[in-house]
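Notes from hallway chat w/ T.B., transcribed later so I don't forget. T.B. wanted the structure written out for a chain they're using in a teaching module, and asked if we could keep both sequence and structure tokens in one place. Agreed to drop them here.
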Amino acid sequence: MRKGVLVLALAVALLVAGCSGGGDDGKTGSSNRPFFGGTESLRVSFMENSPPGEVLDNPLEKSAPSDKSQVMDFDIILRVENVGEQDVAAKNLKTTIGGIYPEDFGKTSALLQNSIFNKELKGNKKDPEGDRIPGSIEEIEFKKLGYQKSLQGNNEFPIQADICYRYATRAVGDFCMRQDTTKTASGVCNIKGVKQVFSSGGPVQVTSLEEAVGGTGKVILKFKIKANGPGSFFKPEPIGTTIKDGCDRGNFAEENFVKVTVSSGLDNLLTCSGFSGTPPTKELRLTGGEASVTCIQSGVAVDAVKKLNIVAEYNHLITASTSVLIKHIPTDDASIVGGFGGTPTGGAPPSGGAASGSGSGGGSTPAPPAAPAPPTQR
């Protein structure tokens, strides 16, 4: 009896699991939500063995400086995946390799700094069924580095990749419009209170939206923006330009800013504190990673639900780090220290050589005495 009950319970459990879609059917988000969300944009990592864990130094650096045949070449390859919901246009991403002195590894500074990536990185997209269309995965390559020097022993060098790219977060929320904003009677919507807001996947998020009565035919809209996760944020370059000068660390006038644009569809009647233009736009400074915005929507003449669209644009700087161990190849240092180990340039001959014709078995003829030095001319 107990065995029959156990089998029946197991069968019911399997049936429930099957009906609930417990398998990986590719459904990664509700079709009723505008975005997948999340606080990531680009994931960056070093490809396996690029750089390798260890390489050898150059044993010929001192004895034959121009001979690079013993330099052990290696590559640095970065894997970049766009897991957010914003495309990164071509020439809107640059990479700088730091931690190593470029010339010591056979490169110029220009080849390892501010390298512009010329491919587009597509963001994640949502199809009509709510399924995820994955974003792009690309590789950024720095080829044929090699340690040009000879070390005194093994030495580990840090390698850091700084990736600066232009990104954006889009957010949308509903707000309420009433012909008579002072009415408390129920209607198509309620003005006062916290509103639901959705943000696209990215490291900057709109975290809250509130609405209140602002007077006759006006409503007040307040929202907060927050930067999440690692990295630094900077003012973005104008659209259509490269990112060559972006992400200037330590520049107070550029760092900790996002460019915010607010639109309601009635933009000529929408004002936001400190913003200018139509639709209202401003470069907001993030204080403690956050900023608050207050807007007033005028011209409220009907009972309706409207969409408030918010776009935050920014340059984002992130880093990936690893290291490479340079192993030393021992060399015969005597040949490069004061003539030791080389051909004598004067004085006594090398040990074991024939100094004179004396001695048993010596078949060598003694060298003639050196000629006297010529007299000094006065």
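Follow-up for T.B.: Confidence is low (pLDDT under 50) at residues 10-27, 339-344, 350-365. Might be a good example for the class.
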